Amino acid sequence: MTIDPATLPEAPMPRLLAIMAALRDPERGCPWDIEQDFASIAPYTIEEAYEVADAIERQDFPALEGELGDLLLQVVYHAQMGAEAGQFTFDSIAAATNAKMIARHPHVFADAPRDKSAQDQVADWEAIKAAERAAGAEKGVLDGVALGLPALLRAVKLQKRAARVGFDWPEIGQVLDKVAEETRELTEARQTMDPDALEEEFGDLLFVMANVARHLAIDPEAALRRANAKFTRRFAAIEAALAAEGRRPDQSTLEEMDALWDQAKAAEKSVGTSARKSG
Q1: What Cα–Cα distance (Å) separates residue 41 from each residue in 16, 76, 125, 180, 202?
Q2: Contact criterion met (CB below 8 Å) for 263 and 244
Q3: Is residue 211 within 8 Å of 218, Cβ to Cβ?
Q4: Which CATH superfamily is domain 140-218 in?
Q5: Over the stretch 228-258, which tens digit does the pLDDT of each residue have?
Q6: Taking the model in full, what pTM does it have?
Q7: In the chain, what's the furthest Cα-to-Cα distance?
Q8: Which fold has domain 5-103?
Q9: Which residues form the NTP pyrophosphohydrolase MazG-like domain (predicted)?
Q10: 184-196 pLDDT, tens per residue?
């Protein structure tokens, strides 16, 4: 026996919660949804968060609406599984978040002064979070930095935590010196061709590059996404130029593709210069 949608609540949020409960109904729900657990759904949650970020970067706001809905569905999914296990509910999740937001914004919901810069308020936020960690089970400085974060983002968060207790380079020049040192060590490891040593030294280099990003106030994930987009755009220009001659990249040479890459790069710079002048 199927579930009649007309029996579901009309208000959007209660309706979404009821839909998820119906999908997970042991007798009448969807077999795939019934089989899922927190671990199997987690990758979809991460994927949906990235798709939200992608829509924002492309400034595709109709798509953003849909992607935010998909991300909300992930929260609802986890909430339903938590309710089934007697661990938490959607309401308890919302209640905990409400309490957290009020506690972390004393300048809005209490009598703390509001005449602070955004940077001062970020510092206050971090101090409140640190107090929360101290009151809880987290005792070490690095405790609570999620293992499931993208590696570059987690590296930055680990470094920020360490910097709060003074474990940090005072000057960006020292960090750049460390980049040179790690590059030399990677080169030395390459000479031995030991796969484990290569991976370790490459990881060290990436870690220190994340530190460079932190010192320069750059989001390394955003910077790499931008570099990915640039590579995709310029390689597409290579493909288009070759296609105009009835050829594919595998029918060209590296030298020819390098030349086409340089042409695409020059064209982008020319457009950027023109835009700045017209602005």
Answers
A1: 17, 11, 30, 41, 31
A2: no
A3: no
A4: MazG-like (1.10.287.1080)
A5: 999 999 999 999 999 999 999 999 999 999 9
A6: 0.64
A7: 70
A8: Helix Hairpins (1.10.287)
A9: 36-109, 176-234
A10: 999 999 888 788 9
